[in-house]
Design brief:
Arc Repressor Mutant, subunit A; 2 domains; three-stranded antiparallel sheet; 3 strands
C-alpha cells in the first residue's frame, strides 16, 4: 500500500512539473502586448465568422504578418471595458 501511495505521489509531482513547464512554454510563445488571433478566439469562444466580424468592426488594433494576425492586448481590454454593462 505504501508503495502505491509513493508512486501516486511521484506521479503527482511529475504532473505538477509538467503543468508548470507548459505554462512557461505558453507564456514564452506570445509577446506581452500582442495576442495571436487563435488564442483570442479560444478566450472569447468565437468561431471563424464571429472572429472575422469582430476584426472588421475596427474596435481592435490588428497587425498581420504573413497569414497570421495578432491583436493588441490593450485594444482587447478597451473593447471589454466598453462592453461592460452597468
Amino acid at each position: 500500500m505504501e508503495q502505491i501511495l509513493s508512486e501516486v505521489y511521484k506521479i503527482s509531482l511529475e504532473l505538477k512539473e509538467l503543468k508548470e513547464k507548459l505554462e512557461r512554454y505558453e507564456a514564452d510563445k506570445t509577446f506581452e502586448d500582442w495576442i495571436p488571433r487563435k488564442k483570442l478566439m479560444i478566450f472569447l469562444e468565437y468561431g471563424e465568422t464571429q472572429m472575422c466580424a469582430l476584426l472588421k468592426s475596427g474596435d481592435l488594433k490588428v497587425t498581420e504578418i504573413g497569414n497570421r494576425k495578432f491583436i493588441n492586448r490593450q485594444s482587447i481590454l478597451l473593447l471589454l471595458e466598453k462592453k461592460v454593462k452597468a
